[in-house]
Structure formats: C-alpha cells, structure tokens
C-alpha cells in the first residue's frame, strides 16, 4: 500500500469518526482529494484504489492532467476549488463537473452562457468570504443570500451549496457555523468546508464535503501551526448538543 493510499484511508476513518460523534452518517460527507501541484503519477494510485473525487485550483493545470485520467476512469468527478477568471469559464465548463467558486455576477453570467452553449449542467457552489479578507475571493456574507437568489432568478443557475475558506489564523468553528446559517437562509443543503488542517472540525459543523490535499498527498513546506488536537478541542467546544441538520 502506498503512503498516499494509507493517508487516504486515515482521512476517511477520521471523517467517519467525527461524523459518528456528531450523530451523522459518514456517507453524508464527500471527500474531495485536492491534487493541485501534484502530477498524474501521484493521482493514479488513488484512482486505482477506488477514489473518484478530486479538486484542482487552476483550470490550466487541471486541463494538463485530467483528460488523460478520464480516459481510464470516466466516472471521475472533478471540482474547481480555486478562483475562476471569466475568460476561463468556457474551459472550466468543458473540464469540470463541479465549480465551487462562483463569487460574482460576471462569473455567474459567463457560466450560464457557457453551460447553455456547451449543453452541460454543472453543479455549482457560491464561495463566501466568511472572514471578509480583502485578498481572498468570495462574496461577502451579508451579500450571499441576495447573490444566490440573483444566480437563480437572473442567470437560471441551480446553486447546490456554499463554500468557504476561513482565515488561516482564526478558529474555523465560527466561520463554519456562519456558512451553515447562510446555507439555511439560501435554501441550499450542501456545505463545502474544511481542509487538511480543519476538516474534522468542519464535519462536526455539518460539512457535506471536505477538501483535503496535503493530508493525503503529503505536506508541502508550511508555517508552524497550532496542533490539530488543540484546534479541534477549541472549535468543538462551541458545538450545539444535538446533531446538526440543514433541514
């Protein structure tokens, strides 16, 4: 068994444990393996082990890797989890199955146009900038409900869920709780939240998909961070006592 497959199994086990602790079914949480910066040879073992859901940050990088992988695995599901430029909308619609980063009117308009032109219906998420960080993509929390409604009524887009990336130096729990509340207000049931450092917290707060890269493919050099156990105990201290539901 390769290291990546062993790490994949470990992540799945952690997701299942966190889901059980929250009174949820582990099958309700989808694992998106984030393969950005990793070559085809690093992705193939996971496909051969049965994993099918992957995430990429850039259209150009994904286009260089996934068409060849789809030849052998046509049931592969590819998510765009990085910012989308409007001039890449056509390529994105042709390549991806899910776009998680709809965050402005121009992108909504271009995606609607390209999906109509290509006769492809992608699953779409609106990215919310829960920390209102100026350097980060995403719609402001206060604008999210109105934006989702415009996506539906003006552009004819079926928004499946919301996505967020909390500030790196903050407890993610309140950001996940905010996204969960916005999902209720937007009348969507899917929540894409949680990455390698905080996916267990995200599951506890109701994530329906988590985006995990380095915890599966291996760590890249990074700044020191608070230990996982400390973050988990800190964030989960704010959880409600009963199981989480978006209904």
From TrEMBL:
Q: Which UniProt keywords apply?
A: Pyridoxal phosphate
Domain Alanine racemase N-terminal per the UniProt entry, residue ranges: 27-221
Where along the sequence do coiled-coil regions lie? Answer: none
SUPFAM superfamilies associated with the record: PLP-binding barrel (SSF51419)
InterPro entries named among the record's database cross-references: Ala_racemase_N (IPR001608), PLP-binding_barrel (IPR029066), PyrdxlP_homeostasis (IPR011078)
Q: Does the keyword Cell membrane apply?
A: no
Cofactor(s) needed, names only, are: pyridoxal 5'-phosphate
GO MF annotation: an example? pyridoxal phosphate binding
Report any Pfam family annotated for this entry. Ala_racemase_N
Where, per the database record, does this protein carry N6-(pyridoxal phosphate)lysine?
A: 36
Annotated signal sequence range: none
Entries under HAMAP family matching the protein = PLP_homeostasis (MF_02087)
Q: Which family does it belong to?
A: Belongs to the pyridoxal phosphate-binding protein YggS/PROSC family.
* Biological role stated in the UniProt entry: Pyridoxal 5'-phosphate (PLP)-binding protein, which is involved in PLP homeostasis.
Q: Which NCBIfam families match?
A: YggS family pyridoxal phosphate-dependent enzyme
Q: Which PANTHER family match?
A: PROLINE SYNTHETASE CO-TRANSCRIBED BACTERIAL HOMOLOG PROTEIN, PYRIDOXAL PHOSPHATE HOMEOSTASIS PROTEIN
Any idea what this protein is called?
A: Pyridoxal phosphate homeostasis protein
The uppermost taxa in this organism's lineage are: Bacteria, Pseudomonadati, Pseudomonadota, Alphaproteobacteria, Hyphomicrobiales
């Amino acid at each position: 068994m390769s290291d990546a497959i062993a790490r994949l199994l470990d992540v799945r086990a952690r997701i299942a444990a966190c889901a059980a602790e929250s009174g949820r079914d582990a099958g309700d949480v989808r694992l998106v393996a984030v393969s950005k910066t990793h070559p085809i040879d690093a992705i193939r073992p996971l496909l051969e082990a049965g994993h099918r859901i992957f995430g990429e940050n850039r259209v150009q990088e994904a286009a260089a890797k996934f068409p060849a992988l789809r030849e052998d695995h046509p049931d592969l599901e590819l998510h765009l989890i990085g910012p989308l430029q409007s001039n890449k909308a056509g390529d994105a619609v042709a390549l991806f199955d899910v776009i998680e980063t709809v965050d402005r009117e121009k992108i909504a308009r271009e995606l609607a146009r390209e999906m109509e032109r290509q006769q492809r219906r992608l699953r779409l998420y609106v990215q919310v900038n829960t920390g209102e960080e100026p350097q980060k993509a995403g719609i402001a929390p206060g604008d999210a409900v109105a934006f989702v409604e415009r996506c539906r009524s003006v552009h004819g887009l079926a928004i499946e869920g919301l996505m967020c990336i909390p500030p790196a130096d903050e407890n993610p729990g309140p950001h996940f709780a905010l996204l969960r509340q916005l999902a209720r207000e937007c009348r969507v049931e899917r929540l894409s939240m949680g990455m390698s450092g905080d996916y267990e917290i995200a599951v506890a707060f109701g994530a329906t998909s988590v985006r995990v890269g380095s915890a599966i493919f291996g760590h890249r050099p990074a700044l020191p961070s608070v230990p996982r156990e400390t973050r988990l105990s800190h964030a989960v201290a704010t959880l409600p006592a009963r199981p989480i539901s978006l209904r």
